[in-house]
Amino acid sequence: MGFPVCCAEVYFPIPFLRMPDILGFLRNLVFFLVHVLALLHFPHIEDPLSSTATATATSAAEVARPSEVSPPVIRRLLPVARFGESRENACECAVCLCEFSEEVEIRRMRNCNHIFHRTCVDPWIDQNQKTCPICRTPFVTN
């Protein structure tokens, strides 16, 4: 019993044993040369997070953003009507997924013409949301 004695010693060539030391030395040499020659400083490329790029992006976003309108103003701009009085062919509210009945109050979005129960879309507006819950069209354009 026991281990076989025939392969008690394994011989590796000396260069093979020194390979990790050689590779480590080459790595340190490359890092040193890069540091000394200042090769880490690449030509200036506009950083998207720099202050000038951020200022330009912010001004572009401000142009595209709907005007800052308070929720009470949005509710006044989106009139309330009875579903029975309007000539809508929609069958259910996309927020609560309940069917519209004749006497229920609805709000019609001005830009996209989607309709919702007033009780469904008013909390959405009160949370300072300024876009349609379905298509994200702004309630109020500039």
TrEMBL record:
<dbReference type="Pfam" id="PF13639">
    <property type="entry name" value="zf-RING_2"/>
</dbReference>
<dbReference type="GO" id="GO:0016567">
    <property type="term" value="P:protein ubiquitination"/>
</dbReference>
<feature type="domain" description="RING-type">
    <location>
        <begin position="93"/>
        <end position="136"/>
    </location>
</feature>
<keyword id="KW-0862">Zinc</keyword>
<protein>
    <recommendedName>
        <fullName>RING-type domain-containing protein</fullName>
    </recommendedName>
</protein>
<dbReference type="GO" id="GO:0061630">
    <property type="term" value="F:ubiquitin protein ligase activity"/>
</dbReference>
<dbReference type="InterPro" id="IPR001841">
    <property type="entry name" value="Znf_RING"/>
</dbReference>
<dbReference type="GO" id="GO:0008270">
    <property type="term" value="F:zinc ion binding"/>
</dbReference>
<keyword id="KW-0479">Metal-binding</keyword>
<keyword id="KW-0863">Zinc-finger</keyword>
<dbReference type="InterPro" id="IPR013083">
    <property type="entry name" value="Znf_RING/FYVE/PHD"/>
</dbReference>
